[in-house]
Amino acid sequence: MREIIAILRGITPSEALGVTHALIEAGITKIEVPLNSPDPLDSIAAIVAEFGTHAQIGAGTVLDAGQVPSLAATGARLAVSPDCNPEVIRAARAAGLLSYPGVFTPTEAFTAIRAGATGLKLFPAFKMGVDGLRAMRAVLPPDMPIYAVGGVGPEDFATWRSAGAAGFGLGTALYAPGMAAADVGARARDAVAAWDACA
Question: Sorted alphabetically, which keywords does the UniProt record give (predicted)?
Fold first, then answer.
């Protein structure tokens, strides 16, 4: 599985299935709908029902443990956050979800790991840079995956992977509200090609 998480911020339920189909067809099979999108749980439930056996689907911008039960009820498998909240991490793991909290410092990273995080979302990655990731990677458990998110695009994959990134979260590099599914698919194919070139 390619470690690229598509971030569909702002997507509507009516767009969700077409865009998701385009992403999966291109080879991206980790997809999140941020909870600050229109009717996000409706989109997530529809995507899970249609594509849940072909992809890992979940929510982004999960900020409160109280959001986890309704997310889990959709059949989602991912809970992604911009921050490191141990309560959210523990709630997600207890509900059987994979948890990817946002971190920016070693303190936040180790807090997330101790709370049971599945992987770490380095956010905003462009502010830390590859040198910062390389330094953090040196002290973190080698089997803890780090996803670079924020200001990182397919053209940067090789550099970030050489510094220790296990994967990436792509937002506007893949999708912007109102974008046609065919255009999302074209961007997704470019991202997949960049991933495969440095795999």
Answer: Carbohydrate metabolism, Lyase
139 vs 160: CA distance, rounded Å: 17
Amino acid (one-letter) located at 99: S
- What is the overall mean pLDDT for the chain? 97
Active-site pick, 3, 121, 127, 155 = 121
User: What's the whole-number mean pLDDT along residues 79-87?
Assistant: 98
Q: Report d(CA 114, CA 79) in Å as an integer.
A: 17
- The single residue of 3, 25, 30, 32 carrying the catalytic annotation is 32
Across-strand partners of 18?
Answer: none
Tell me, yes or no, if 127 is annotated catalytic.
no
pTM here?
A: 0.96
Closest CA to 61 of 129, 127, 11: 11
Long-range contacts, stretch 150-158, CB < 8 angstroms, 24+ apart: 150/122, 150/123, 150/124, 150/125, 150/126, 151/124, 151/125, 151/126, 151/127, 152/125, 152/126, 154/190, 154/191, 154/193, 154/194, 154/195, 155/194, 157/194, 157/195, 157/197, 157/198, 158/194, 158/197, 158/198
Confirm whether 32 is a catalytic residue. yes
Query: Can you give the CATH number for the domain in which 82 is found?
Result: 3.20.20.70
Find the domain containing 176 and state its range: 4-197
